[in-house]
Amino acid sequence: MQIITDSIKYIGVDDHQIDLFEGQFEVPNGMAYNSYVILDKKIAVMDSVDQNFGKEWMKNLESVLAGRKPDYLVVQHMEMDHSANIKFFADNYPDAKIVSSRVSFSMMKNYFGTDFADRQIVVGEGSKIELGESDGDHTLQFIAAPNVHWPEVIMTYDCREKAFFSADAFGKFGANDYDDPEGWACEARRYYFGIVGRFGANVQAVLKKTEPLKIEHICSLHGPVLNDEIQYYLDTYGTWSLYGVESEGVAIGYTSVYGNTKKAALKLAEILKNKGCPKVAVFDLAREDLHECVEDAFRYGKLVLATTTYNGGVFPIMHNFIENLRERNYQNRTIAIIENGTWAPAAARGIMAMLEGCKNITWAQNKVTVKIAVTEETVAQLEKLADELL
């Protein structure tokens, strides 16, 4: 059980049955669906959990309530891994009010066949709910957070405990009973750029709203409660949402049909390391997790795309990777190209056309062209490219 404060209790669940989150993200270490209870004279429950864990969640809730009844269910996000048990809650606690945004209630109508019209409390930017009766008791202050990453999202600040309930923001892949040796950042980065990355401007708007708040706890709907180094998490989200460079280094993504483009990519990595590049991340787009490749492309300031010409254009797997970058607003990067083609190399032209609409892209002047095999001439081109990237 995660520790937050004496008056905020964790009642979430861990899912080790899931293999693909949202039907596409590999989660070998499971997922957490977080929910919380805020205890005062009145009691607020923060979100529900995935449909497969309703009974476990309700048992956790009843244990914390110790015979009391909740007054509110606050619904911050209507995605089904958090909203599936709203009706289950409503049926079990018929006197409780449902608190959410106006857009959320329209979604509830579609999902459950009811928008709980006689029980709903509609909140938006600046709305407040008092859980106690005097100064120093819990006051919930609501923050509108549209498109982080759904349009109905609200977030909540508990003024007493200085706890920020951030909906999906600051979440990560992995169950909470799994002790991630890589800490928060790695799977939080894959989660952010996989799911939220397109909405950088919206994340920036929310971060701006949090600036006046003193935050001591970040309670996301996925992953651990963040109790220390709060500014680090806020700053990291600031970097990600501005599409800034998080780490100095070069990411090299390649596809290779008969191994020659791979040889060129690995040779460039070797040259870069020998020349003192602080970090070189190399990934085979055909064999490695797509979304880990995407996170590396956003992590570093320089990206090398190495691929073959195929059907007069870009190799399909590379094409898909670039589409994933483009739809997430890839920008503010230096990109270099290694292309391979037996008789008429065309991959470079296709890559540049695909990324034409991306903002603030600097193209490396040294393009490397391989014609079937890596030669001494190829290595000389790679040396020049490495010098330019450094």
The helix/strand class is: alpha/beta
Question: What best-fitting shape do the alpha-carbon axes yield?
Answer: elongated
Question: Which radius of gyration do the C-alpha atoms yield?
Answer: 24 Å
Task: Average the pLDDT over all residues and give the rounded result.
Answer: 96
What distance lies between the first and last C-alpha atoms, to the nearest angstrom? 47 Å
Unreliable stretches, pLDDT < 50, 5 or more residues?
A: none
This entry's quaternary arrangement is single chain
Fraction of residues in H or I helices: 25-40%
| β-strand number | 22
User: What's the tally of helices?
Assistant: 12
Q: How much strand?
A: 15-25%
Sheet of most strands: 7 strands, mixed
In short:
By secondary structure, this protein is α/β, with parallel strands linked by helices. The chain has twelve helices and 22 strands.
List the SSEs and their pairings.
Layout: E1 8-10, E2 13-15, E3 20-21, E4 25-26, E5 31-33, E6 36-39, E7 43-46, H1 54-65, E8 72-74, H2 80-83, H3 86-92, E9 97-100, H4 102-112, E10 120-122, E11 128-130, E12 139-144, E13 154-158, E14 163-165, H5 185-196, H6 200-210, E15 217-219, H7 230-241, E16 247-254, H8 260-274, E17 280-284, H9 290-299, E18 300-310, E19 313-314, H10 316-326, E20 333-340, H11 347-354, E21 361-363, E22 368-370, H12 376-389
Parallel strand pairs: 7-8, 8-9, 9-10, 14-15, 16-17, 16-18, 18-20, 20-21, 20-22
Antiparallel strand pairs: 1-6, 2-5, 3-4, 6-7, 11-12, 12-13, 13-14, 18-19
